[in-house]
Amino acid sequence: MLIAGNWKMNTTLPNAQSLAQSIATGYLERQDTLAPIDMLVCPPDVNLQAVGGELAETPVALGGQHMHHEDAGAFTGEVSAPMLKAVGCTHVIVGHSERRQLFGLSDADVNAQVKQAQAHDLIPVICVGETKPERDAGNAKDVVRTQLHAALNGASVAADDVIIAYEPVWAIGTGDSATPEQAQEMHAFVRSELAALHSPEDASGVHVLYGGSMKPHNAEALLGQPDVNGGLIGGASLTASDFLTIAEIGAAEVAS
Ligand SMILES: O=C(CO)COP(=O)(O)O
Predict the structure, then answer these.
(1) Which family does it belong to (predicted)?
(2) Which of 90, 203, 185 is nearest to 140 (CA)?
(3) Alpha-carbon dihedral of residues 151, 119, 97, 152, nearest 10 degrees?
(4) 3-state class of 102 per DSSP?
(5) Residue 133: which CATH number?
(6) Of the four listed, 5, 110, 137, 191, which is most buried by Cβ atoms within 10 Å?
């Protein structure tokens, strides 16, 4: 079980520090409860180092939200895997639908970034998911299959090397999450595709996270599905108490 927060383009430095402090304090208060699960936060790049400092006494991991596939060079505005590593990141989100839709990220770019992350010992959290018209047309699984195969072409699918996040685009930031049944159906499909691509043993160990309007009120039903191994949380990860409540729900699920 992995509970991850994607802060997106939110938090100035002081806000990020105070949010991270609240998460650290809250984590330490619930340490025994939360010990069985993994946690990750992905703040804006400029706040990574400060957030890492605030979380230093906790096992909460640090991740980037995006990165370039080259180590360095003339790529104005981009950050690289070595830069993320140097500020303490262990993970990086790759292929978020906002990067795909708003910044033109292609499946080929996602693949290059996945391989670059793995080459630098960063675990890519690969986001896949269909739009509403794609779902309505009955194409959700085809879209997810295409994204998944493209992202993982030539990459490692060992459980320690990759995380998949199923994030239906229509559920992101809308308050309209997938139903637990919809999530389970797609997560099982993702796992079967991973098994076909590589091996059933690898596929059974890969974390497949759900993202898209996961909140304290719906987390239990979503995290209770057998193929849902955690959440990638946007809006609710910006409130420490909500983020920690979802983590507690995840921990309870592990214990049950
Ligand atoms: O995009 C997401 C996480 O990457 C989900 O965002 P919301 O939880 O705000 O819907």
Answers:
(1) Belongs to the triosephosphate isomerase family.
(2) 185
(3) 10
(4) helix
(5) 3.20.20.70
(6) 5
CA 190 to ligand 1 centroid distance, Å: 19
pTM of the model: 0.97
196 Cβ contact list (under 8 Å, min separation 6): none
Show the ligand 1 pocket: residues with CB < 6 angstroms.
6, 96, 167, 172-173, 211-214, 232-236
pLDDT in tens, 47-83: 999 999 999 999 999 999 999 999 999 999 999 999 9
Give, in order, the Cα–Cα distances in Å from 85 to each of 98, 135, 249. Answer: 23, 37, 30
Cβ pair 78, 68 in contact under 8 A: yes
Q: Is 149 one of the annotated active-site residues of the chain?
A: no
Average pLDDT over residues 231-235: 98
Indicate if the pLDDT at residue 199 is higher than 90: no
Task: Please state the atom number of ligand 1 nearest to the C-alpha of residue 97.
Answer: 1
**217 labelled catalytic:** no
Distance CA 130, CA 228 (A): 17
- 167, 193, 248, 253: which is the annotated catalytic residue? 167
Residue type, 210: Y
Ligand 1 pocket: which of 94, 166, 167, 174 to mutate (most atoms <8 Å of CB)? Answer: 167
Q: Residue 232 Cα, ligand 1 centroid: separation in angstroms?
A: 7
Identify the residue whose C-alpha is closest to ligand 1 atom 3. Answer: 234
